[in-house]
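Hypothesis: this fold can be encoded by more than one sequence.
Test: take the structure tokens below, design a sequence, compare later.
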């Protein structure tokens, strides 16, 4: 049995199933969370327009706008950790959700206690990241023409064009630029970019690296340089550029 840890964090549950909304809301509120439950993306947008949340629990299979479309929108905004729920629990859906920016993924029906444990894990991870980045958040760094503002989470290419990054892509790039010119294994990248409590999905890291590479590719071609993220066979990946204060 999980210890009776109380937490006042605000949780947003998005699920079209009224019974599941009630079940999760009641259970999480018993553990001290402030829970708002809505049935669809429109209701979610209304809640986000008037308040802030610490984490969202998002169902994949919903009528109208589905969960992956909502996830894409939320990830583009950044900042809100998301745990996905899906009645279809295959690896492809799990990997798609993770590489689009979800922090975690559970198959339905799930045990509310397992969801509670995952929520606590994600919230702890984000609090550690926030605490550890208090000083780092003011940093502005550069590498072969690119500049990144860590506080604003803003990346600009050598033409001073803003490169849009999902939350997951930003965390991955941050892991690379904080450990430049070092070979990082997939497990290390997962740890640096998502936290040691995350489950290891090698393919999810590979897909995330591929997406980040594509976003850096245009500037690399302009400068006539090779991949900034190099694959090291049987070992992992290495960020090849020198990283300096901006």
């Amino acid at each position: 049995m999980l210890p009776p840890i109380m937490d006042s964090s605000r949780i947003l549950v998005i699920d079209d199933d009224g019974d599941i909304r009630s079940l999760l809301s009641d259970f999480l509120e018993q553990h001290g969370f402030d829970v708002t439950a809505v049935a669809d993306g429109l209701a979610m947008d209304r809640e986000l327009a008037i308040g802030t949340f610490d984490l969202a629990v998002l169902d994949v299979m919903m009528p109208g706008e589905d969960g992956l479309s909502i996830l894409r929108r939320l990830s583009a905004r950044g900042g809100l950790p998301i745990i996905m729920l899906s009645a279809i629990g295959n690896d492809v859906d799990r990997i798609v959700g993770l590489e689009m920016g979800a922090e975690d993924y559970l198959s339905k029906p799930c045990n509310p206690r397992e969801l509670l444990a995952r929520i606590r894990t994600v919230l702890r991870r984000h609090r550690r990241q926030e605490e550890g980045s208090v000083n780092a958040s003011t940093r502005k760094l550069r590498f072969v023409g690119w500049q990144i503002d860590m506080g604003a989470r803003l990346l600009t290419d050598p033409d001073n064009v803003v490169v849009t990054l999902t939350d997951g892509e930003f965390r991955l790039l941050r892991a690379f630029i904080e450990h430049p010119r070092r070979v990082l294994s997939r497990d290390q990248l997962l740890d640096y970019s998502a936290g040691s409590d995350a489950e290891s999905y090698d393919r999810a890291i590979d897909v995330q690296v591929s997406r980040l590479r594509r976003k850096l590719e245009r500037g690399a071609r302009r400068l006539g340089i090779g991949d900034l993220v190099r694959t090291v066979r049987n070992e992992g990946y290495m960020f090849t550029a020198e990283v300096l204060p901006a």
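Confidence is low (pLDDT under 50) at residues 1-5, 195-200. The CA atoms of residues 82 and 103 lie 6 Å apart.
Hypothesis status: open.
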